[in-house]
Amino acid sequence: MENQDFKKSICHRLLIEAPAEQVYAALTTQEGLAGWWTPETVAKPEVDSMLRFSFGPDYFKEMQVVALIPYSRVEWRCLKASEEWIGTTLTFELEPHTKGTVLFFRHDGWAAYTKEFASCTYDWALFFRSLKFLCETGKGFPYPGFNK
Questions:
Q1: What radius of gyration do the chain's Cα atoms show?
Q2: Can you list the domains of the chain with their CATH numbers?
Q3: d(C-alpha 65, C-alpha 49), whole Å
Q4: E strands within the chain?
Q5: What is the pLDDT of residues 15-64, one digit of tens each?
Q6: Pair 38, 143: CB distance under 8 Å
Q7: Could you give the C-alpha distances from 57 to 20, 41, 53, 60, in angstroms and in order?
Q8: Cβ–Cβ contacts within 10 Å for residue 50, how many?
Q9: Cα separation, 110 vs 49, whole angstroms
Q10: Which of 37, 66, 99, 123 satisfies CB 3.0 to 4.6 Å to 75 for a cystine?
């Protein structure tokens, strides 16, 4: 297996002015994930469960839940998606903050800095804006309206 040290990672860090319990629910429940990423979500907050996120009729991503530490950490492994995503891991870490919760996100295991990597970096930023709005106001901007 290739040395992970040579793999590329997408990282984001943002303050969400909401309690960690609320952010954790948005990252782990079907209702929460549908509210900020894509309405076409199938998810259960259980380790080893499969998550399915559909983006239109012809594209979807499947993730395996690797770790769930309530109000602190969520980790997924991508099993099905565009080729560059397969085998990558997505980690959401939550830290308490006086104004709410800090989310530190890593999407690890990319083979190279490609056009897909660059697009994904931008899209994650937009989706985390959606997550922030969902947690702070009750309404996110999931696919397909996340980039409006």
A1: 14
A2: 8-138 (3.30.530.20)
A3: 6
A4: 8-16, 41-42, 50-54, 60-69, 73-80, 89-97, 100-110
A5: 999 999 999 999 999 999 999 999 999 999 999 999 999 999 999 999 99
A6: yes
A7: 33, 13, 11, 8
A8: 15
A9: 23
A10: 66
Q: Which residue has the tokens 């492994």?
A: 77
* Tokens describing residue 127: 């989706």
Write out the two tokens for 119: 């697009």
**DSSP H/E element including 12:** strand 8-16
Environment class of residue 23 by beta-carbon count within 10 Å: exposed (0-12), middle (13-18) or buried (19+)?
buried
Q: What distance in Å separates the CA atoms of residue 103 and residue 95, rounded to the nearest whole number? A: 7
User: Of the candidates 147, 140, 106, which has an alpha carbon nearest to the alpha carbon of residue 31?
Assistant: 140
Provide the strand spans (E) within 25-81.
41-42, 50-54, 60-69, 73-80
* C-alpha–C-alpha distance, residues 87 and 73, integer Å: 19
AA identity, residue 66? V
20: its two tokens: 């960690």
pLDDT per residue as tens digits for the range 63-119: 999 999 999 999 999 999 999 999 999 999 999 999 999 999 999 999 999 999 999
